[in-house]
Each structure stands twice: as C-alpha cells, then as structure tokens.
Write a structure and sequence with these properties.
Elements: E1 33-36, E2 39-41, E3 47-50, E4 53-57, H1 58-64, E5 68-72, E6 77-82, E7 85-90, E8 95-98, E9 101-104, E10 109-112, E11 115-119, H2 120-126, E12 129-134, E13 139-144, H3 149-168, H4 171-177, H5 186-195, E14 196-210, E15 214-228, E16 234-244, E17 250-262, H6 265-268, H7 277-295, H8 299-303, H9 312-325, E18 326-340, E19 345-358, E20 361-376, E21 379-393
Parallel strand pairs: 1-13
Antiparallel strand pairs: 1-2, 3-4, 4-11, 5-6, 6-7, 7-8, 8-9, 10-11, 12-13, 14-15, 15-16, 16-17, 18-19, 19-20, 20-21
Helix pairs in contact: 3-4
InterPro entries: Cu_amine_oxidase-like_N, Mao_N_sf, NTF2-like_dom_sf
Keywords: Signal
Protein name: Copper amine oxidase N-terminal domain-containing protein
C-alpha cells in the first residue's frame, strides 16, 4: 500500500472529540449496537467501552468502512486507504493525518488485551462519518457525511477541464476556470503557454475538505514538456483550493505546490537555447567569477557578480559569517544556456561539484542549479536567487 505524503505545514483542525457514551452512564460493551448506513454491525469482542468511550479494533472497523489497512509494528502506526482517502494514526499519538491534513488524536488510539483500538467517534471524524449516540437504545450510528458522488463529479470536472485547456493552450479557457477572487497570476501562466507546451497526467486526486462554498483537493501530477521552450519535467504534490462562483460552479482560487521532484535532470542540459557565442561566453565568465569569489571567500567579488537588489548588505553579512566557518571548492561540471530572449535576459543551467569543510567535517555533493542572468549597462550579471533542482550527496 502506498503510504501518504505528510505535509507538516498543514493546519491543525481544532474540534471536540467527545465520547460516544456519557461517562456517567455505565454501559457494557455487549449491549452497545453499532449501526453503519442503516445496517447493524456486530463487532463482538472487538468492541470495548472504557472510561465512557467506545473503541473498536481498528482493522475490523476500517474494513467495514471500506478501507485497506497496514500496521507498522516498529512505529506502532496504522496506515489506511480507501478511494480518495489516506489515513495515518499511531498508538498513543497526538496527531493523525487525513489526506495530509492533521487532526488531534490524543487518547483516541490505544492498546488493550493485545488489540489496537480506535475511538469510534474519532474514526468517524477521520472517515467523514457523523456519529450519533442514542442513550435509550444504547446504539451508535455512523452516517457518511462527505461529498456525494454527484458533488465529487462536479469537483473532478474542474480538473478534466484543466487538462483539456492545457492541451489546447487555451489562455481564455484558463481565465474562465479561475474564481473571481483568485490569487493566481493568470497572465504569467498564459505567457508561459505561448512558448512551451506541456502535458500533465493526474496520478492521484484526493478531496481534503469539502463544504458548500470551498473545496480543498490534493493532486499528484506528472507534467512533461511536449514542445517549445525550456521546461523541467516534474512530479508534484499540489493543493488546489476551489471556490463556487455565482452560478454554483467550482473555480480555482489558489494552487500551492507542496512537494516537487524533477524527473529528467540529465535531459535538461539538452534543452539548449540559441545564443550568440559572445553572449554565451560573457555569461559563463560571470558565473566563473562567482565560483572563484566563493572559493576564495571574497565577499565583495561575489556580490559584484549579482544584479543589484535591496538585501545586498544582508547577503554580505551572511557570506562573511559563512566564510568564517566554512571553506569550499566549487567546480562547474556541465553548463547550458536554456533560455535567451535575444537581448538582455537568459537562464543558465549548471551542474556543480562542491567540496565543503565545516568544523573539520568534509562533505561532497553535486548540485544542479537554474539561475537567471540579466544584462545591465552592457554587462551580464546573475540574479541573487537561484533554483536548486537537485542536490546529491556523494
């Protein structure tokens, strides 16, 4: 079973996890009935009432709810999967994960008489089930409260349209797919489509949360270049937030990349742009100057290779402190200009071999770096911010 990706930056949802039975009411396990979607389920000895709360052996319960489970003995952790749902929770843990979102779980997963038990109301919260206790009938009813099949289909339709729009390079279609209050920079995406065509495959889609006005969906997307300008193929885990428009249709409010892995690093160096040799040589020289300054721990020479920016003095301080404790030997292994606008902007891709010594400890790594260059007053300089595509420890 594929284990879920845990997003540590997810917000902790605070809500009450009240017991399924009143603490003041003595209830025998055998007298409690569990009703799941109007059907009475007999859990027998797998159902335990303790300290006023009803617990059920995790595997027996989750099987009834349509989940496959796996138990990691070393971590005392349960992994469970059903359609669009991935759960993770641990014995004695304080936090559980549902499609990457975190939920409090203190006291909800216990071990008793050799069994791993999960609180019934807590399990309902994990699996989108409302849980009701009928004290008179001594029954607990679980009713599915997540989006219906029709509601899910309306959400899926957004992403079906998105793939069609990408395939057509339809800038207007992209704009129409965005919510009125979207925080997305639609113009920059449309501009990219003018030069590069991509194809995205959605490998997984999971609805994290659903309400009448907002949906949060996490996708695993595999995107590759079809034609045109420079583009690094990648696989990403992406969170989409959708809002409803006035007509009741779902639209994209925001897109957040949670994790990303570039899938064809060697192939990136084959995406060379056409650039005059004199310009290529000038850009290579400024990068070589930057490497030389870093190796020689020359702060001023390093900063002199950069396009002017507001935080220059802060960078100088950072480099000064770094060079006091660290020595390095950086060598450029591969080099390619992968974008050139014909005049004053370019993008360079470099593979560097880095030997670093800090506090007597030596290490070596290979880094793949994507850096923007800009021609200022007739001289090529590098942007202070670069993108680290890959970092391999050797």
């Amino acid at each position: 079973m594929k284990r879920m990706l845990i997003t540590l930056s997810s917000a902790v949802l605070a809500f009450s996890l009240a017991g399924t039975a009143s603490a003041s009411t003595a209830v025998k396990s055998q007298s409690v009935k569990v009703i799941l979607e109007d059907k009475v389920v007999d859990f027998g000895a797998d159902l335990v009432v303790t300290k006023g709360k009803t617990f059920v052996e995790y595997k027996a319960l989750l099987k009834q709810l349509g989940y496959e489970t796996e138990f990691d003995q070393s971590l005392r952790t349960i992994y469970a999967e059903a359609e669009e749902m991935e759960l993770q929770f641990s014995v004695g843990g304080d936090v559980a994960f549902v499609n990457g979102l975190t939920l409090p779980s203190t006291g909800e997963v216990i071990e008793q008489n050799g069994k791993t038990l999960v609180g019934l109301r807590f399990a309902g919260a994990l699996t989108n089930h409302d849980v009701e206790w009928d004290n008179k009938a001594k029954s607990i009813t679980l009713s599915y409260s997540g989006p219906s099949a029709q509601e899910k289909a309306a959400v899926y339709e957004v992403f079906n349209k998105m793939l069609l729009i990408e395939a057509a390079g339809d800038a207007q279609g992209l704009k129409d797919l965005m919510a009125e209050d979207t925080v997305m920079d639609i113009a920059s995406v449309s501009e990219g489509w003018k030069t590069t065509k991509t194809k995205t495959k959605i490998e997984k889609l999971a609805i994290q949360s659903y309400s009448d006005t907002s949906v949060v969906v996490v996708l695993v997307e595999d995107t590759s270049k079809v034609s045109g300008g420079f583009f690094p193929d990648n696989k990403s885990q992406t969170r989409y937030t959708l809002h409803k428009d006035k007509a009741g249709s779902w639209k994209i409010y925001s897109i957040e990349v949670l994790a990303q892995q570039y899938t064809n690093i060697p192939g990136l160096f084959e995406q060379k742009a056409t650039i005059p040799e004199t310009e290529n040589t000038s850009i290579r020289k400024i990068f070589d100057d930057q490497i030389k300054a870093a190796n020689e721990q020359n702060v001023d020479a390093y900063v002199a290779t950069l396009v002017d920016f507001a935080e220059k003095e802060t960078l100088k301080t950072t480099l000064t402190d770094l060079f006091k404790s660290t020595t390095m030997n950086i060598t450029a292994e591969k080099w390619a200009i992968v974008e050139y606008n014909g005049s004053d902007k370019a993008k360079l891709l470099v593979s560097t071999l880095n030997e670093v010594e800090t506090g007597g400890t030596k290490s070596q790594n290979r880094a793949i770096i994507l850096n923007d260059a800009e021609k200022v007053n007739g001289k090529w300089l590098l942007k202070a911010e670069a993108v680290l595509l890959s970092n391999e420890q050797l």
